[in-house]
Design a protein that fits this description.
Layout lengths: L2 H14 L2 H7 L2 H9 L1 H9 L9 H20 L5 H25 L1
Helix pairs in contact: 3-6, 4-6, 5-6
Length: about 110
């Protein structure tokens, strides 16, 4: 292993082993977004199902919900990029579902 990669590895290990990182892993700033990832994953999985099964009301509600939480993720201190990424992914997945819903029903 080269000197540079050894230095990078040592810094990475020390960062992972730090008290701040352990505190982050035990916080709602981490586990809240992790739990929320079920929403975009379900929407992505549903994108392969028949569009007749899509609820337009629920798709709209989830678009609004994710839009609000993307804003919240950027407003809290410290900024929660994990929550933002989760809801940005869900927003795209829900917009795709909404497009499929409208295309099927129009």
């Amino acid at each position: 292993m080269s000197q540079a990669s050894s230095s990078i590895t040592n810094r990475f290990v020390s960062k992972i082993a730090s008290k701040e990182f352990r505190n982050y892993l035990m916080s709602t700033h981490f586990w809240g977004p992790v739990a929320n990832w079920g929403l975009p994953l379900a929407a992505i999985a549903d994108s392969q199902k028949d569009p007749s099964l899509i609820s337009g009301n629920m798709t709209l509600a989830l678009c609004i919900y994710s839009g609000l939480f993307m804003r919240f993720a950027l407003a809290v201190k410290p900024v929660n990029y994990l929550l933002f990424a989760c809801h940005a992914t869900n927003e795209v997945a829900q917009l795709n579902q909404g497009y499929r819903f409208l295309k099927y029903n129009k």
